[in-house]
Design a protein that fits this description.
With about 240 residues, the protein is mostly beta strands. The chain is built from 2 helices and 17 strands. Bound molecules: magnesium ion.
């Protein structure tokens, strides 16, 4: 009877998960999004902005190893890249493009990620590609499904406008106000001041550890996702 209960419970979880797959919506048009006043341009297609702002996210902060091809940043194996500068609450704009032709399924298709420290907004090719909702494109990975699936097809440029509010910690390092992420994907609000439970965990329950300003990081998940037009603007 224990086995029967377990199977029943598992079936229920799967049904709930499947029933709540975010609706596919037609995204808005991709608009020019030049950096506004007060923003730092982190990448504008030039070697200059790339190497001035980015390093390989290893212990030595070595030279950034992703490739610049025709003014576009292309993910290369060997790890994440991250900004030299660190950030508190801020607004971020970037554009990304998943590989065409699409290769692989589920989490193995066009996977990358936009991280503030260890808080991930997922980048994934979910155009006619099913995965679990809390892992799909524009999810807060393993914490919050997007309100809609606003993906464009592989090979087309897509935009993220992300607002990050930094968590607040008390003197003992306890989190008193959680971090939030608001994500607009291709013009559509998909995360609405979503409160984070802690850093992104692949398995297990997230829990906060006190921290200060964080670098912005882009994920190496093995797929050659491309990025362009990246700027960031502190709030306040
Ligand atoms: Mg990812």
């Amino acid at each position: 009877s224990d086995l029967k209960t377990s199977v029943e419970n598992f079936r229920k979880i799967c049904e709930e998960e499947y029933a709540s797959v975010p609706k596919v919506v037609t995204p808005g048009p991709l608009k020019d999004a030049p950096a506004p006043e007060g923003a730092t341009v982190l990448f504008d297609g030039t070697e200059k902005t790339y190497h001035a702002n980015w390093v390989k996210a290893d212990r030595k902060n070595s030279k950034a190893h992703w490739k610049l091809v025709d003014g576009v940043l292309v993910m290369q194996r060997g790890g994440y890249i991250q900004t030299k500068q660190t950030f508190e609450s801020c607004q971020l704009h970037l554009e990304f493009c998943t590989p065409k032709p699409a290769k692989g399924d589920g989490q193995h298709r066009g996977n990358s990620g936009v991280f503030f420290g260890n808080y991930e907004t997922q980048v994934l090719d979910n155009y006619k590609n099913y995965t679990y909702p809390q892992g799909q494109c524009a999810s807060i990975y393993k914490q919050s499904r997007p309100l809609a699936n606003a993906c464009r097809p592989p090979g087309e440029w897509q935009s993220y406008d992300i607002t990050y509010t930094a968590p607040v910690f008390d003197e003992d390092g306890k989190c008193t106000t959680p971090a939030t992420l608001t994500v607009i994907h291709n013009g559509i609000l998909v995360q609405d001041k979503t409160e984070l439970k802690g850093p992104t965990e692949f398995r297990g329950i997230p829990s906060y550890k006190a921290h200060g300003p964080l670098p912005l990081r882009l994920q190496d998940h093995g797929n050659p996702v491309r990025y362009r037009n990246i700027w960031i603007k502190p709030i306040k």
